[in-house]
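Submission sheet (multi-component)
Chains listed below:
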Amino acid sequence: MTEPIIYDLSVPGRTGALLPDVDVPTTALPADLLRDDLDLPEVSELQVIRHFVNLSQQNMAIDTTFYPLGSCTMKYNPKINEDVARYAGFAQLHPLTDAEGAQGALAVMYEVQRWLAEISGFSDVSLQPAAGAQGEFAGILMVRKYHLDRGDTARTKILVPDSSHGTNPATVSMAGFQAVELPSDDEGNVDLEALRAACDDTVAGMMITVPSTLGLFDRNIVEIVKTVHACGGLMYMDGANMNSQLGIVKPGELGFDVMHYNLHKTFSTPHGGGGPGSGPVAVNDKLAPFLPGPVVGIVEEAEDEDDAPLYGFVMPEKSIGRLKVFHGNFGMHTRALTYMRIHGAEGLRDIARYAVLNANYLRAQLQDDYHIPYNRFCGHEFVLEGHFDGVDDVHALDISKRLMDYGIHPPTNYFPLIVHEALLIEPTETEDKATLDNFVTAMKTIAKEAHETPELLHEAPHMARTKRLDEVRAAKRLILCCRPIPAAEPVKVTEQG
Amino acid sequence: MTYIPHTDVERQQMLSAIGVTTIEDLFEAVPSAHRFPKLDLPKGLSEMEIAAEMLALSEANDHGQDFAIFRGAGAYHHFIPSAVNHLLLRGEFYTAYTPYQPEVSQGTLQAVFEYQSMMSSLTGMDAANASHYDGGTSLAEAITVALDATKHQRSKVILSHAIHPQYRAVVRTYHQGNDVIITGDESDASLRDLVDMIDDDTAMVAVGYPNFFGQIDDFGALIAKAHEVGALVTFVINPIALGLFKSPGSIGADIVVGEAQPLGIPLGFGGPYLGFFGVRFNYVRRIAGRIIGETTDQDGKRAYVMTLRPREQDIRREKASSNICTNQGLMALAAAVYLSLMGKNGLKKVAELCYHKAHYAADQIGLLEGYEVQRDKPFFNEFVVQCPVSVKAINEELINRGIIGGYDLGQDYPHLQNHMLLAVTEMNRKDEIDALVAALSEVQEA
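Outcome: structure written.
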């Protein structure tokens, strides 16, 4: 049954809120400034609970099903994270509390900065960015300011491989640069000849994902870094795929100058149906003065070794500025620190080891049934092609929808763009062998169905409550709100105004 | 410690299937000189150990369970019904991804559609997106929309100084690489001065409603002038105030942005919060971020899907107007649940409680010698008090009495040294307000 819209449950006069009465003498309200058109649902608490619980049950989620969504690292989100983030001392802490009264929160942020710096091999970290895309933006703004600070105004381009996340070229434009796309070679690596040809004194830097969006470690990565540095550009690493690098390799040691993390990917803070994320940036000492701020620093060392120092907010000397109101998505910092502290050094390395083991296991099990374009040891994810020779009308989308019938969330489809009918599969380290085997069975069955009964795939999903959607109709009719919105009153100009 | 389920036997089986002997063999493409570096980090902790450690850190903070909070300035201590948290903890919601696969994401999609609908109603806008990171970043993105809507022929954006100082800082960070002049907030220019600044080169004017000082201004002349020259007007709102005051849409706003944290989201030391973004219908194709639209499935059943997707970075790449990818989806859910629970009457009541308590506090403080409450304009639940001594000195004393005092405006506004911005919400009982007033009176004497 279709769940009604919350407004359809509304009964005039009802409310779901138990609020206190006014306990102070009241003041007259300014009548001419008040509205009489507030249009919100009028429902009881039980109605609200049932409505949203019913809605929740129409979702697939990590807590309900295997969710091998490449590039997104849909690993298990430990429950303790949620408890910690809700401790009153964190949840009920005002962001503008004086530093003396927020030492616990500042210690959390300082520790997250320290752990992220150590894991990446960088010297400094800012937790300001609210998401990976904002981390990218911070990174490219830093690259911009670094060059301007040296008096170099000729650098107008940022190199971006054709396999990159869409956020990379969009970030480049947003920061006022021109994106120059580099082709990939037959192995899925950056084409070194094309890179060398593109590198000159108009290049401000390059953005690259490691391992690549194909899930592959680029064998030439050190050479790429050297080539860009040689022309005076800086190297940005998109850290979306950090789950296969924890304790395996430090981007700072590879020569990168700046990177972002996605705490909601690598460090298990939940994806929340689209967000909130958190996208800290890490830099070497070349870029440290330009970090977005404020960042947390030690403003007074402890007198005793056992005592805590005094933490405070500090603005980096040549900061690109503030990217977010207050201090970044602090609730994600508490969760990420909880997760990192539970794992410790060796646990973190195991995350990457087992994420890569799981991905390679799936790759090995599926290579006879699907075409895998770059079939070598992969990182934490790999790409296969969602189509079959001799079956023209089965596409990656059909395979995706059919997986829903087997109780599995589809992989990322049609990304990266350089692979025809791409399905990007990332199992993560928290899935056990039985779950992976079940996925393999489903994928093999679907491959068979594609040849024998392709209509099963075309019409999928069969089991989901909702069938395929009319997306053209959504964009044409454009219904974005279920209530009528009154037109504006004619503007009144008064003396005071 | 890890959440990795593999047994030794399973690991061996998997390695054999791949055709290698150890997991380390899989990393042969990583440059050997840099492979498997030392991590100078402590060893792992058990769940009970980390819980105790984090609890101790949380208790090292002056938080709302132990202190009466009279600080707002962009983050507000409001009542959050228990049901909000219970629904946010549904794993089906919080461990799902962006709803790229609508057939198995109708829960998230419909919830966000309802959020868009309720926020559109609240603000009087025709459409809202599925959210930005916070109020400040939504204001920065509003400028991008205005520049685009005025065909990139205009270079001036006017901001009132009475918009949150950190929002204005975020705006400047966002637009440092673009040819846009952000002006109007360098001084304490009056609204009349802003009206005089509006000209043919102005793409947008932004004002606070209520403004950063809690006041409700009359924007009639400003809106008339802006529309006369073809500039857009953006309102930066506090959503609780809209439980009482006229909607920005009804007054003439073209874009409404703001921080929706007051709608069921805890203070949380500043995040995650919820950037609201709403527009008039003619601008909807220019906005960034996810937008959920209604459609039907193959069986003709009503269903929801992310729509107008070709605007977005994953499709449009370097031609996209913004790189935004994640939003604050779970926080949008919190706001949807909060607004559903409160409903028409509840939200109005919360706003009235805030209004009456703030005015009571202002009245009482106004009676104290040495303190002067600025009352030249109507205000909602925040107000400016000129103090006899430094705000820092007052707040240090208040902390000793279990009170987190007002925001020190001198930090951002040189002409407002010794001025405090106090916020009062439904969370502040009368006895807390009386204790604040008594404490202020004694600080004055001391």
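Remark: Chain A has a mean pLDDT of 96.
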